[in-house]
Every structure is written in C-alpha cells, then in structure tokens.
C-alpha cells in the first residue's frame, strides 16, 4: 500500500511536471497586450526617470540584481549576491564585487561582459549627460572589469548598504557597443539606440512609436530557452486610468493595464464583468500631510517658510501637531479614496516589514476627537465665537495645499471636516501636479517652497533600505532661497538628536541594528509631528483572468518577471 | 487679387514672428517644469543636471534664437535633403528635439499626421456632407418636423461635450455590444479586406463623435444662410419667371448661401490638424492632439512651441485662403 502511494505521488509529480512543460515553450502564447495610460516616451531609463519608461524598458534591459515581490534582493544577471559572508562585499565596506553569469548573450547574439557594466556606469555619470538615475551611482569612485565576468565597484567612503548601482529596474545595464558614441551631450542624439536598446531581457523592441505604442518580440537569445511564453508584446499608451482599467476588466481587449488609480466603486462596477482581476502590492509610498515648522504668513512675502520668518505661530506647538493627527480618521480616508490599495499608517517608513515600526499605532491609528480637544484645551487654545480655536490672537486656521487629483481633493474635504470637529479651520487649495512638483523657483506654488501651513502629497524611497530617505529630514536639507529651494526636508523639521542618529545609521553595517535605528528615526518623526502620515499606498494594476504567472511587485518594475508570464489554457 | 494675396503673405511674416515670440515667452513664463513628472525619489541635484542637459540653463533670448534657427533653417534644410537627396554642408544640424522623447519633433509630427488626418479629417468631411443637405432641407421646410428634429439633434450635438458622447459610445458599443474596439490601433496596416474592416471598425466611434459635433455646427450656418437668401427678391423673381423649384433652391439659393459657409469651413480646416485633443485621448487615437496635450502636461517646451506655431501658421494661411475664396465665389467682392 505504501509503495502504491509513493508510486502515485511520483506519477502525480510527473504529470505536474509534464503539464508545466506543455506551456513552457518560447512564443507559444501569442501576443501579450499591455496598456499604459501614460504613454512611454523613450526606452532609455537613463534619459527619463519616469516610472512608465523604467517599467517599459525593464522588459528589455536588466540590472545585475533586483528585488522580488517581497522586497528580497535576488541575483539576476549574476551568480550570487555579493555579501560580507561570501566576501563579495569587502570588510572595509569600500568595494563590491559582482560575478556575472557565464554565457550571457545580448539580444543581438554578442557576449554580455563586465565591460558593458563598466560602460553603463560611465554613461550615467557623464557630467553632461543629465542622467536621470545618477543618484543610483552616488559615492562610486570606480567601476572596473577585473575579468570579463567580474565587476568591481569601489566606493569613496564606507558604504554599509552597497546595493544601489546596477540593482533594480532604475539602473539596468546597457550595451557598450550600441551606446559607445552616445556619451554625455551626445546622448539625446542617439534616437534609434534610445528607442530600441539592445538588452538581455525576455523581449526586444521591434517598433517604437514615442508616446504611442511599442511592439516587442521575444528575445531569440534569452538565457532561458523556454521563455518568454509570449511570442510578442504590444504596449499601447495614452488615455486615462479609468478607461485603461475598463479595457482589461470590462471589455477584455487588453491583458494588463498598469496603475489602476481609480475610485474603488468604479473598479467594483468594472470587475462585475468577470473578465479580469486586480493585483495589489505595497511598497514604501506614503501619503502624508507636511506641517510647516516655519511661519507661512503671506504678509512675510519672500521670507515665508524660511528660517528668517521664524517658527510657525501655532504649528510649532507640539500639542497642536499631535491634535491634528489625532483628529484624523485614516480608515475613512482609505475607504473613500483608496479601497484595497491603501492602508492606514502612522509611519513614514511603512515597509519592508523588518523596518516598519508599530510603536505609535496604538494612539495614532484610531481617531480620538475627545483626546485632541482635550490636548488643545490644555494648551490654551480656546474656541472663538465662530468655533475656531485661538490664543493670543493666533487662530488655528490653515492653508492646506496639495496637487490637483480627485482623490486628493476628496481627502482634503474629509480632513477639513475632521479638523472642524476640533475647532481647526482649513482653507483648501490645489495646484496642477506639474507646477506643484515642478520645482520652478519662480513659482509660489511648488511643494518645496511650501507657501502654505500644511501640504499633502506622496513620497517613497527606491529599494528597501531607508537610510537615504531618512536623511531627508536633516536640518541642513531644508529648502531655502539660499539653495534655490532645493532640499528634501520639506516640513523644515530640525532636531540635532535626529541628525546624530542618522549619522549613526550611516556608519552601521549590521542589518538588524540598521532596522532598529531606522525604526527609531521613523518614530521620532511621527512622535514629534514632523508630518502626519496618512495612507500607506499600494500599487494596483488590472490583469486579464487568463494571464497567469504575475507576481505583482512594488520594489521593482511591475513587469520584473514578465518572462514567467503565460496564458492559461 | 494677386497683389492682394502677395501683400497679405508679406504681412503674415511679421505676424508669425510676433506669434512665435509670444508663444515662446508664454511657455517660458509658465510655472511648469520638464522634471516635474519624475518620481520624487530623484534628488534635486540630479534634476538640476537634467535641466542643464536640456539647455534650460541658458538665457531666454538665446534659447528663442536657437529655436528660430532650428525651425526656419535647420528643419527645412533637412526636409529638403530627405526629399531631394542633396547635401547641404555636412548635414550635421541641430534639430528641434523633444525633451520627453529626445527625438526630433518633426519626426514625431510626421508620425502622428496619418491617424489625425484619417480620423479628424474624415469626421470633418462627413460633418460637411451631412450638414449641407440637412441645413438646406431644414431651411426650405422651416418649422417642419424635419426642421424641428434637425434643430434638436444639432443643438444636442453642439452642446453635449465630446468627452461625454465618446465615453457613452464606448460603454454602449465596446463594453455592452462589443462591436467596436475602444482602443485605436495605430500599428494597423490596411492591406486586405479584413484589415480594412478592422480600420473601419476602429474609426467608427471617434469619427461618429466628431462628425456629429462638426455637422451640428455647420448645419446651423447652412440653415441660417439659406433662410437669409430664401426671402430675397431674386428668389421671388426666379419663381415668377417660372424657374423650377428645384433649380431655384439648388442653383440660385444654395449657391449664394454657400458663400459664407465655405468661409466657415475653410477657417475650420486648421482645427483638423490641431487634432481633437479630447476625442483622441478618449479613443487613444494618439494623433497630433494627444501629442500636444502630453507635451503640455510634461512641459515639453520644444514640442509645444513647434506644434502651436505650426497651428498658428495654418490659421494665418487658411484665413488668407478663406478671404481669397470669398472673392472668387462672390464677384461683387474685390480687394484691389
């Protein structure tokens, strides 16, 4: 009997294997139809840092290592991840050595070598090139090809977390032979290379119509002879998020539509057609309300929101900052604007799990109007005749800015109503996203200038290590006229203790210790009210039911494993 | 007439120069930025480098003069080269590059032209073909049921925005009936009967939406103009002479009525080239209108500048054509 069972199990295993072999053949599943509602402008992510370009190009060109859907680093074009244990990462944290997979071929059939990796570094760090991903190569003094299969990266100073260059969809390796005449100022002129880079990925560009449609074909030299399952792929661009989702979920014309940023009830109606599904994954995006630590009174003119203007008359009071956070019901905001693609959060670093703090969830995640009112009463903010609190002639009335976007405007309305319950008034304002995020020093409406008391937007960090991100709240990173309003410490938060702790993080290599420090830094920002974190935003895309093998990923490109996608028979 | 045309053409040059300067200045003053759409994870120093690589660190006047040189000298020479095969100089000329795609703007425009001309142009043609007979009958049988229905439909077509009719058609014909695709395929090559059918199916909805809009507008003009003429003395005279009613209507009245209509139609031609921004966006036709709106959103100034300037040239040109046509159609009008 036992023997029979083993036999049976063996047969089942064989059948499972053979059935998986049945569709594991290159190009048997026809055309994969992809819809991006923001059309792709170029296939060179080094010339355009836009998410759409990074995703589209990741079907063709690949990094040495990338993040899987859990945020784990996986070796991609290399044999293993260099670590301190295996000696790939030197003890002094000054160099990193990647071992390339042998026999890798570019789609044109030539060998993929360490020289290509070195060239990629040179290409992106050329001072005249305006490389959009230059930050990925920060702190690197040299990249050299030790032998055709070994790449050694040297850092200018000890780098406790070295995985940035050639890691993730933002810094893929491009072919030296193709781009050799495109360095620096010549980069934009290489139109055919920028539109059809030669890569190691599962697809090659057959035809590229900028801002319209891209036609791909399976890469004949792809390293896995059984993949990709699709013979070709078409990536159409344009339109809007709702109609893109409709083309997958309701009419079934497309297999995959990127970024279904649509109100939950609209999506629910489309899902009723039963043709597709939504896949959601969470990265590090957090919608937050920044509280201005400096005075933003328009009467101050150009001094607004700078150190010269002095501290904010009411927001500098910790009690006010905490009360504003307590008054907000994050569940309602999530339900109304985000549905399944959002979670309430109080952290600015919400993921990965190892660095996500839970310390402040107890007081912060649930709305407590009573406690908020009590805090303000105790701090001496008393309600005036119109119900708005004031003290010494300072009213709790705020200019609340954000970018134009229907979900943001709805959130503004909700927050305004919640704050009204604690005697805080808000004047709502929104600016077009290209202006708000545009950073034009001449415009008064940019989020960097922060000519408002509070402002709301989303930010995140690349990869899984938050060090660089947490360093944005350093005192010297405040935007000001002196630095042309460049600087990422938008709330103008400043705490020497915080600065010291960031310094410690930058010297710590032990991963557990780093996570601990990151949590501490995150908690400091929450507790001291540098900002009010609202929603941990996920990425949401729609897929046809027949499309299988998808592993939705927020840490890397959404199409990171497109070689494994197949059509269910 | 000829000297008049020449004089007008001559005056068009300073007008266009002023227009190009105004467009450039407006775009420069607008508070949008080509790096504005990039993820916030890209730090400010890198953005500064990107702006420098786009040439944004140069003074306004230099950038404007460069654009003038590229538009009026380099690009025409390039077109001439590719048409004739001649070589001027070393052939290495700075072309107008789009900031978003980093490819020559003229190539983008050439790539977008076919679908825009097919969809928007065809819709304009259908609109005219529908509008003239409807307008004539409506006017001839004023206040009849036909006129009432025609007036109602044209009022609806004129006042309901295309972003409503477009989505409505998609919901009915794509989602519910599944007759037509909701996404336009610009890669489709018509080479046999089935691909022709596919082309007709994908053009049906956008053309219908735009044709309704165009027809509504033009019908009103035709009807009003016909009504003006139907009560003229010469019509009564013609009828008194015993001219057949058909000849009165189609030869005497229609011909005279079409004079202002032709002007309106000629003035509307440039709008074909500027594309139908909203309709193209809804059906993803990705023609010139979509190119313009994406460029505006992405602060792709060279592309916006070039496109709007070409539209300005077309408007100036068709204004002239309309004036000249007016003179040809109505011999009473003389400019000289």
UniProtKB/TrEMBL annotation, chain A:
Keyword Signal part of the UniProt annotation: yes
Keyword Protease assigned: no
GO molecular function: peptide transmembrane transporter activity
Annotated signal peptide: 1-24
Main location: periplasm
Protein name: Peptide ABC transporter
Entry GO terms, CC: ATP-binding cassette (ABC) transporter complex; outer membrane-bounded periplasmic space
A Pfam family per the record: SBP_bac_5
Organismal lineage: Bacteria, Pseudomonadati, Pseudomonadota, Alphaproteobacteria, Hyphomicrobiales
Subcellular localization: Periplasm
Keywords assigned by UniProt, alphabetized: Signal, Transport
Source organism of this protein record: Pseudorhizobium pelagicum
GO BP field: peptide transport
Family: Belongs to the bacterial solute-binding protein 5 family.
InterPro entries in the cross-refs: Peptide/Ni-bd, SBP_5, SBP_5_dom
Ranges where the Solute-binding protein family domain occurs: 72-474
Automatic annotation (TrEMBL), chain B:
Entries under InterPro entries matching the protein: BPD_transp_1_N, MetI-like, MetI-like_sf
Cellular localisation: Cell membrane
CC terms in the record's Gene Ontology section: plasma membrane
UniProt keyword terms in alphabetical order: Cell membrane, Membrane, Transmembrane, Transmembrane helix, Transport
Pfam families: BPD_transp_1, BPD_transp_1_N
Membrane topology: Multi-pass membrane protein
Regions that span the bilayer: 9-27, 117-140, 152-176, 196-216, 258-283, 303-329
Biological process annotations from GO: transmembrane transport
Coiled coil stretches, renumbered: none
Domain of life according to the entry: Bacteria
Residues in ABC transmembrane type-1 domain copies: 113-322
Keyword Aminoacyl-tRNA synthetase recorded: no
Family, as annotated: Belongs to the binding-protein-dependent transport system permease family.
Name used for this protein in its record: ABC transporter substrate-binding protein
């Amino acid at each position: 009997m036992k023997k029979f069972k083993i036999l049976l199990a063996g047969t089942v295993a064989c059948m499972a294997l053979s059935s998986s072999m049945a569709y594991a053949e290159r190009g048997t599943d026809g055309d994969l139809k992809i819809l991006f509602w923001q059309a792709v402008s170029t296939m060179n992510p080094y010339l355009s840092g836009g998410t759409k370009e990074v995703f589209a190009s990741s079907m063709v060109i690949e990094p040495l290592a990338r993040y899987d859907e859990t945020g784990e680093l996986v070796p991609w074009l290399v044999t293993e991840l260099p670590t301190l244990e295996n000696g790939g990462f030197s003890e002094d944290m000054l160099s990193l050595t990647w071992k390339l997979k042998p026999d890798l071929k570019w789609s044109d059939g030539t060998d993929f070598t360490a020289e290509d990796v070195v060239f990629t570094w040179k290409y992106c760090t050329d001072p005249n090139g305006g490389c959009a991903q230059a930050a990925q190569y920060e702190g690197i003094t040299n990249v050299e090809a030790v032998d055709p299969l070994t790449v050694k990266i040297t850092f200018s100073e000890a780098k406790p977390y070295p995985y940035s260059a050639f890691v993730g969809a933002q810094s893929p390796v491009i072919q030296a032979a193709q781009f050799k005449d495109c360095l620096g100022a010549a980069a934009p002129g290489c139109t055919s290379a920028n539109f059809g880079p030669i890569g190691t990925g599962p697809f090659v560009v057959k035809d590229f119509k900028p801002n319209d449609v891209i036609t791909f074909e399976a890469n004949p030299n792809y390293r896995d002879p059984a993949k990709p399952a699709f013979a070709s792929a078409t990536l159409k661009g344009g339109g809007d998020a709702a109609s893109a989702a409709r083309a997958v979920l309701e009419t079934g014309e497309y297999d995959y539509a990127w970024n279904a940023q649509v109100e939950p009830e609209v999506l629910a109606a489309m899902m009723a057609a039963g043709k597709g599904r939504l896949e959601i994954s969470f990265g590090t995006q957090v919608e937050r309300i920044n509280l201005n630590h400096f005075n933003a009174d328009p009467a101050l003119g150009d001094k607004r929101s700078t150190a010269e203007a002095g501290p904010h008359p009411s927001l500098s009071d910790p009690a006010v900052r905490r009360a504003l956070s307590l008054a907000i019901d994050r569940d309602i905001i999530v339900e109304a604007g985000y549905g399944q693609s959002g979670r309430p959060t109080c952290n600015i670093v919400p993921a990965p799990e190892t660095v996500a703090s839970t310390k402040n969830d107890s007081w912060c995640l649930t709305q407590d109007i009573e406690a908020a009112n009590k805090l303000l009463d105790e701090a001496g903010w008393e309600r005036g005749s119109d119900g708005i609190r004031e003290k010494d002639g300072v009213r709790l009335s705020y200019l609340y800015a954000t970018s134009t976007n229907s979900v943001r405007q709805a959130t503004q309305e909700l927050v305004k109503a919640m704050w009204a319950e604690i005697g805080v008034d808000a004047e709502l304002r929104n600016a077009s996203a290209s202006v708000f995020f545009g950073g034009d020093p001449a415009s008064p409406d940019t989020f960097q200038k922060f000519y408002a008391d509070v402002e709301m937007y989303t930010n995140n960090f690349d990869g899984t290590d938050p060090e660089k991100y947490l360093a944005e709240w350093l005192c010297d990173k405040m935007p000001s006229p002196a630095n042309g309003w460049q600087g990422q410490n938008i709330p103008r938060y400043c705490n020497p203790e915080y600065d010291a702790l960031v310094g410690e993080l930058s010297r710590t290599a032990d991963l557990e210790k780093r996570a601990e420090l990151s949590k501490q830094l995150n908690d400091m920002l929450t507790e001291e009210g540098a900002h009010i974190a609202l929603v941990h935003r996920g990425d949401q895309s729609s897929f046809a039911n027949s499309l299988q093998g998808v592993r939705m990923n927020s840490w890397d490109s959404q199409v990171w494993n497109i070689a494994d996608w197949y059509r269910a028979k | 007439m000829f000297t008049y045309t020449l004089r007008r053409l001559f005056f068009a040059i300073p007008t266009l120069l002023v227009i190009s300067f105004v467009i450039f200045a407006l775009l420069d003053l607008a508070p949008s930025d080509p790096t504005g759409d990039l993820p916030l994870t890209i730090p400010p120093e890198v953005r500064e480098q990107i702006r420098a690589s786009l040439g944004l660190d140069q003074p306004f006047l230099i950038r404007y003069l460069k654009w003038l040189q590229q538009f009026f000298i380099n690009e025409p020479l390039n077109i001439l080269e590719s048409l004739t095969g001649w070589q001027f100089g070393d052939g290495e000329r700075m072309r107008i590059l789009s900031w978003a795609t980093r490819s020559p703007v003229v190539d983008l425009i050439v790539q977008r032209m076919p679908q825009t001309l097919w969809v928007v142009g065809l819709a304009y043609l259908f609109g005219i073909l529908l509008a003239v007979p409807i307008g004539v009958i409506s006017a001839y049988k004023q206040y009849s049921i036909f006129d009432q229905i025609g007036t109602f439909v044209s009022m609806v077509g004129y006042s309901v925005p295309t972003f409503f009719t477009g989505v409505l058609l998609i919901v009915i014909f794509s989602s519910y009936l599944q007759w037509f695709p909701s996404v336009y395929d610009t890669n489709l090559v018509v080479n046999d009967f089935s691909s022709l059918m596919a082309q007709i199916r994908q053009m049906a909805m956008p053309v219908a939406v735009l044709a309704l809009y165009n027809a509504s507008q033009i019908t009103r003009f035709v009807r009003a103009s016909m009504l003006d003429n139907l009560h003229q003395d010469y019509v009564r005279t013609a009828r008194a002479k015993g001219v057949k009613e058909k000849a009165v209507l189609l030869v005497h009245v229609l011909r005279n009525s079409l004079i202002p209509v032709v002007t309106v139609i000629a003035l509307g031609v440039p709008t074909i080239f500027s594309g139908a921004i909203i309709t193209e966006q809804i059906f993803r036709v990705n023609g010139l209108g979509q190119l313009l709106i994406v460029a505006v959103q992405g602060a792709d100034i060279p592309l916006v500048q070039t496109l709007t300037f070409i539209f300005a040239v077309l408007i100036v040109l068709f204004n002239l054509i309309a004036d000249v046509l007016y003179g040809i159609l109505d011999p009473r009008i003389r400019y000289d």
